[in-house]
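Bench notes, afternoon.
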Amino acid sequence: MSTIRRGEIYWVNFGKKYHSEFGKIRPALIIQNDIANRNIDLVAFKGVTVIPLTTQLAGGDVRVLISKRDALEHPSELCLNELCTLDLSRIDTTHPCTTLTPQELESVEIKLKRHLGLPL
């Protein structure tokens, strides 16, 4: 299995949509730290924290625009308010769709801290 890294976007199976939760197979950003990512095979709970993407562009304080590039077929937005942890088996780790630029990742971190009420 390839090692997932923070800042990479992969296809993720979110399963059946439940009320307002995201569903279906869609791209998602790996946001958890790389120490956890590198050691995921050594732990019993193989949870990976991700942020789903949507092609329904809305902008705002909990969205970050990611341009169409590499294997990401449409301009999309990261939905920071939908941050969640899923089992590694839901992620197609074959190859990433794309990787965020340092500027995009910084924007995600700033907006995510605001959303979670953490100091900037």
